[in-house]
Specification:
The structure is a single chain. Helix content is 34%, strand content 15%. The protein contains 11 helices and 8 strands. It is globular, with a radius of gyration of 18 Å. The protein is of the alpha/beta class. Helix 6 links the parallel strand 5 and strand 6.
Length: 337
Amino acid sequence: MDAFDPEFLPVSGFDLPRFAGIPTFMRLPNPKSLDGIEVGIVGVPWDGGTTNRPGARHGPRALRDASTMIRMVNQSTAAAPFHTARCADVGDVGPNPASLDDTLVRIKRFYDGLMAAGVTPLTAGGDHLSTLPVLRAVAAGGAIGMIHFDSHTDLYDDYFGGYKLTHGTPFRRAVEEGLLDPKRIVQIGIRGSTYDGEDREFAAEVGVRIVGIEELMDRGPEAVMAEARQIVGDKPVYISFDIDGIDPAQAPGTGTPEIGGFSTHTAQRMVRALDGLDIVGADLVEVSPPFDVGGITAFVGASILFELLCVTANAVARRKGRAPVVNERLAKILRRA
């Protein structure tokens, strides 16, 4: 089946105003069946792993609304993701707000269905614990790599005297469960105060590469991303983007903000540098609308989701033996620039 299918294209703002219609991610179709879908954007409206300020359960709804501003083509790269792969909004995982354990089972079951249908997931969270059951489905066949943008490592062992499942522990669990190869994990933007350094000690022991914010600022995003690409190589890789990696001056609507982060522009450049990797899934998490100001964090998150979609759609096309589609009119202009 060819990638292009008009049934999988977003509604254009030339045809229906962006403030009209039922909002879906990027105005994509929300089909009843997974048939033909290559990239499925999923909402995980749940923050049962949050240890302080909740609200990320409302993130997917805010991200859907903000994403109505997204258009067809990436003006910086000429990438045309909706023509490169068949994309759709595949709905929300239905969480159980009364049970963390049951919700983790529900999330994995939902993603197992996507994997069985050959759909590559792009997730809108939700808190960061949501990523663990996603990885349990995506990495069921063996450990994969990960490039992780965040202000926190999420590598702690436990909270509150032995509790192992919070939004500060998902990647410790993922390493222990054999879902992630620690020597193919790169964490970028880490900063802020900490508890005791136990997470960093674990990272050093197992081989996780941590790029703190100072190193990122000193070396620049191009050098850091070149190293990240070298570490994960050409094997399957998952991308996880916590919105609190961005400085709270530009993305205040999150539960655990840390000052001194990277800018929205730097975030875009780093995500664009992922193009060419074998991306098997990605997420954007921890947007918390109750702490947002004027919806700016939701729009930042929707914009980063679009950048993630561009590189994910390209990866899907390459796995299927197709060349990624670019907008030739814009590509010619960019080549002359």
